[in-house]
Write a structure and sequence with these properties.
The protein is an alpha+beta fold. It has 13 helices and 7 strands. 34% of the residues are buried. The chain binds iron/sulfur cluster.
């Protein structure tokens, strides 16, 4: 074991975070947690994880569940392709491996949604397999430790750091080592203000020793999310609200939203008229009233600026074709909403 690994493991023994998916080395729990933790903070994930596991305590229970229900348990976490892949992966495990998650790299990486990082995390934490698990935390810590000048967003930098991690991964303790680096990155070697004087690796860290921590990791500036203006219609009639299912592919696939149009013009009358045309297309005679609510929501590549208009029917309700539907407003909490649309009908 290298001295760096020994210091890290000894620090981890004292400082490791008590997280609900870490208590019994169950690969299913590790899998679910790692998928939830992608793009999401630990504090946010914990209550979702507990609710999800209470309802789907095993791979088999998740595999057997209806997708609509699984999505409901993910509501609020965003990035729904993650849970769709997890669900599909659980079905593959049930169908191909009798409900037992495979314990070898080749097989586990064939499961839906499992890439190098998740495979490494599951195999090392559950089985102590000698697999690195290189995520953003690990990239940051190692780029600082060795003053790596490669842009950490590149495949070349990731490959290089993966090789370094493989060299320092202690035999038989890979799970603890990987979790130690995750914890160090999350609690000490943080992106904005690393606590170097409290770091167990301060003496080994080239960036700290050269007083260059601020220079690492090297990261190309990410493109800012594209601003998108949306007009949203809240049409309520006889206690029901009108909603539409988004297409089965793409952003927020198959989730439900209110009638929405994207617009570029700023003229209020024009925006309302464009929104009214959505209803006209459905054969509904609707009055688009004033703006009642403004919401913003940021995705990795898009930023939605939503203005919600109160709408009223001018005539008796008529049926609407698929993918539209009326839903009773009191049942709105059961709908799998497309991201920020959930906030429009909060009780
Ligand atoms: S000394 Fe500072 S920069 Fe280096 S690994 Fe520790 S916290 Fe990160």
């Amino acid at each position: 074991m290298t001295s760096l690994s020994a210091k890290l493991l000894s620090w981890y023994k004292e400082e490791k975070r008590d997280l609900p998916w870490r208590r019994d080395g169950d690969p299913y729990k590790i899998w679910v947690s790692e998928i939830m933790l992608q793009q999401t903070r630990v504090d946010t994930v914990i209550p979702y994880f507990q609710k999800f596991l209470a309802r789907f305590p095993s791979v088999s229970s998740l595999a057997e569940a209806d997708e609509e229900e699984v999505l409901t348990y993910w509501q609020g976490l965003g990035y729904y392709s993650r849970v769709r892949n997890l669900h599909e992966g659980a079905r593959q495990v049930a169908a191909q491996y009798g409900g037992i998650i495979p314990d070898n790299l080749q097989a586990i990486k064939k499961l839906s949604g499992i890439g190098d990082y998740t495979a490494g995390a599951i195999l090392s934490i559950a089985h102590n397999a000698p697999c690195p698990a290189v995520d953003g935390n690990v990239l940051r810590v190692f780029s600082r430790l060795y003053c790596l000048t490669e842009d950490i967003m590149t495949a070349k930098a990731k490959k290089n750091i993966t090789e370094i991690v493989k060299r320092v991964l202690p035999a038989g303790r890979s799970g603890d080592f990987n979790q130690a680096v995750m914890d160090l990155g999350a609690t000490v070697c943080t992106p904005a203000s690393p606590r170097c004087p409290s770091c167990p690796l301060a003496i080994d860290c080239q960036a700290y020793q050269k007083n260059r921590v601020i220079d690492f990791p090297v990261k190309r500036s990410a493109r800012p999310p594209r601003p998108t203006q949306l007009a949203v219609g809240l049409l309520e009639h006889n206690g029901s609200i009108l909603i539409r299912r988004r297409p089965a592919k793409g952003l927020l696939a198959s989730m439900w939203e209110f009638p929405t149009v994207e617009h570029v013009e700023q003229d209020e009358m024009m925006v309302r008229e464009n929104l009214r045309q959505v209803f006209v297309f459905l054969g509904l005679d609707v009055n688009v009233g004033s703006a009642q609510q403004k919401l913003t929501h940021t995705f990795s590549h898009l930023k939605w600026f939503m203005t919600v208009y109160d709408c009223t029917m001018k005539e008796a309700r008529i049926e609407v074709p698929c993918p539209w539907r009326w839903v009773e407003k009191r049942m709105a909490h059961t709908i799998t909403w497309a991201g920020p649309h959930a906030k429009i009908v909060q009780p």
